[in-house]
Amino acid sequence: MSVTKDDFARYVWENEMLLRENAMLEAYLAREKEISAREGPTEPPPSTSHKSKRPGSRAQRRRAGSTTLTLEKKIFIAEKEIKAQNVHLAEIEEEYQSESINYKAMTGETEVRITEIKREAYEFKRSVLSKGFIWSKGGPATRKVPADAVIKYYDSKIKSKDMLVTKLQARNKVIAAQVAKMESQLNNKNHSEETLSPIDFRQLMIENESFSQTIDAKNKDLLKIKVSTTKMGQMLTDKRQLLVGLQDEAVSLRKRIAYQEAREKKLRDELSDTKKHVSRLKKHCEKLRLAQTISDMPSIEDYVAQKSDEHELQKKIKQWETKVQLAQTEMRRARRVAGGGSTTKLIKKTA
After folding, report:
1. Which pLDDT score, from 0 to 100, does residue 59 have?
2. For position 130, what pLDDT does the model report?
3. Is 334 exposed, middle or buried (0-12, 13-18, 19+ CB in 10 A)?
4. With contact defined as beta carbons under 8 Å apart, do 347 and 331 qualify?
5. What does the pLDDT look like over 63-72, one tens digit per residue?
6. Which end of the chain, C or N, has fewer beta carbons within 10 A?
7. 333, 350 in Cβ contact below 8 A?
8. Residues 281, 287, 292, 295, CA torsion sign
9. Predicted structure pTM score
10. Domain locations along the chain
């Protein structure tokens, strides 16, 4: 008997479906066994009304050794598995939500703690490090913080922590007293065998739900306040750093202003000395002018006019000397060319 490719694929698919059904059945039986061991017998799967006859041949009896689930049983087991998976998913989701809430609370607490550490570091820097260092003979590498400032800082911190511990102890005592009071009321209530009616239970459930909603709202508000407080602390730290920078800049500006004022004073003194020197020179010039007017020397205007006339006369002398030189040159040329008679004519023409 030959098996075709389609038959082989169908056999593989049927085998895979049987494996899946077997896995689902094993999970169902294991879960039912665990539940029955913990809570007692549960609802059995529906029985089928189909009755199989006793197989006649040996091959039929061998095939009858394997049990096949009916459709009703398969549907019943599938519904049970779906319900179990839904319950498991709900548990996982609830666990995830609780873990998420815990992580959010831890994150908020960590942020608050980081802010507190930054604030303490800033306070330590302001209270201890800003007061200076003790410089030893070794140089800057061996500088030390004053021990008195550190001891004083940590003593104040320890005192504040002690006060906080005392306050928390008092609060703990108050809460313990309240708990004892509530326990005594509960014991009295149990002893008096008071019973609550369904209406009272319903009222308490409503109040509990309203209180839970109020608590959730308050927790959200508290978380927002913590976040805003953290942001404000960070902003305050930034502003303090900016203030320190501005103070340093103000100190440098004061130094520059003092330097400029000293320089201005020096320049004013120099200007005053220069004015005095100029006034002395003016007085000296006035004296010289007065002495010049008293003496027999010519005035400046006459001297300038005489100098101008002298310059004009020298200029004319140079012009006449040039003309004489030109005439002599022409005369020599004429003598060489024409002789003595023509030379006389040239002299007359030149004159």
Report:
1. 46
2. 73
3. buried
4. yes
5. 444 566 677 8
6. N
7. no
8. negative
9. 0.32
10. 144-194, 315-340+347-351
